[in-house]
Amino acid sequence: MQYLNRMSVTSFIKRVFHVSFIKFLFVAGINTLFGYLIFSLTVFLLKNVYLSVIVATIIAVLFNFKTYGSLVFKSKDNSKVFRFLGVYLCTMTIQMLLLKGLSLIGIPNPYIAGGIILLPVSLLSFILMKKFVFSKQIA
Q: Is the Cβ–Cβ distance between 35 and 63 less than 8 Å?
């Protein structure tokens, strides 16, 4: 019990947050909150849900690009935004296919199906961003 002092807990937390996937999940939470707040604000200001979805999505994706790039992958290279959008489109398509697949095999509830695929799709998104967007080898 004496090994669990304040310093060891602090150093454990620092080590955990140095792992990029954990950082990625943490930043994903921040991005989700930001995206929802922007959506809510645009609904309030624009009084049009569909226009709000478009405006909020554009703002949120650009915000996500900056937060993932700087906080997770230590990149400030804005030229990678098109690769980032490509990864978003890829993972969104895979997410829709998985939701449809789970529905076809007897899991029609989108909340349950979304929960089932949440971690695998997040992991795929992290891998694709690390390899194809924020890779140090990509110029």
A: yes
For 80-132, how does the pLDDT look when each residue is reduced to its tens digit (9 = 90+)?
A: 999 999 999 999 999 999 999 999 999 989 899 999 998 899 999 999 999 99
Structure tokens at 136: 């140090």
Distance of CA 94 to the CA centre of its chain: 14
Spell out the SS3 assignment of 43-72. HHHHCCHHHHHHHHHHHHHHHHHHHHHHHH
Q: How far apart are CA 40 and CA 28, in angstroms?
A: 18
Q: What is the pTM of this model?
A: 0.79
String of b and e for 115-129 (b: at least 16 CB within 10 Å)?
Answer: eebeeebeebbbebb
Comparing CA positions, the residue from 135, 131, 98, 100 lying closest to residue 117 is 98
